[in-house]
Amino acid sequence: MITPQDLFLQRRKFLALGVGAMVSPLLIDELMAQTPYGKPLDYLKDSNTSLKPTRESDATSYNNFYEFGFGKDDPKAKSGSFHPTSWKIQISGEVQNPMSIELSDLLKSVKLQERIYRMRCVEAWSMIIPWVGFELRELIALVKPNSKAKYVKFTTLYDPNVFPMQKSLFSGIDFPYVEGLRLDEASNPLTLLAVGMYGKPLLPQNGAPIRLVVPWKYGFKYIKSIEKIEFTSTQPLSTWEKQNPREYGFYGNVDPQTPHPRWSQASERVIGERGRKPTLYLNGYEKEVGYLYEGMDRSKLY
Ligand code: MTE
After folding, report:
1. What is the pLDDT of residues 208-261, one digit of tens each?
2. How far is the CA of 207 from the centre of ligand 1 (A)?
3. S-S: 217 plus which of 85, 150, 252, 287, CB 3.0-4.6 Å?
4. Which atom of ligand 1 is closest in space to residue 123's alpha carbon?
């Protein structure tokens, strides 16, 4: 993603400006009281897997959320003033029932469940996360896409008062962060909109209050703090594809045989464990999602 050299130059500029002072993180209890749903999550446990989750303290402190900075520790350290208390999501485009809905109301119409999934970042590290969320296809059924809808576009909240990097001249990223899926990918039962992890509402650094989870794709597709969902007839241009099309594509499918132009994707560093393990095609979910890519050139799905 951002190269160490970019980071070095940008860091120097931030320091020169005195930007990036540490804000103390919120206590989890305080945050739970401030979430739109304000109470511990009620969900169906995942009994389908033997995957052992990554330590919660690792998953909530080693993050990518460039709206707060480029360091892995920036999202936790700098998101203390992000309080997503009431959160509206706009759903529009090629649908029969467009809506602007409070997250707390949306959650009354869907089934919250836990899914313990592997998560593989394009930077070649991985974790196992016990998500709490609902299948995106439940939301799709509520808004009823029309026959022109072929893609789903997601946009993160744009609010430079909350996300300091959105007003930084040096971020190098064209915010707000945008991601997209084909409608059939979005409709696959594995695709979730997550509102929690480890049985609790999402913390700011993990994309509170709602984010995308697509376990067979690289982590950059898992867009955080989603405010807008649009159904489109044309393929959306996602943030990293726009930023650097040579290195990042629309699909972002995990594939050990398709190297990133600057590193191999054949193996991954498992956070919290020693050594590396081989990366699996489609992150191990080929049985569930392989049909989506039949007849397509695998090497083009990065
Ligand atoms: N969403 C937004 N809005 N901004 C980001 O910078 N980073 C992505 C993704 N979602 C990102 C984002 C990347 S590169 C990864 S690997 C995952 O979030 C990281 O999720 P995590 O911090 O919960 O592990």
Report:
1. 999 999 999 999 999 999 999 999 999 999 999 999 999 999 999 999 999 999
2. 8
3. 252
4. 16
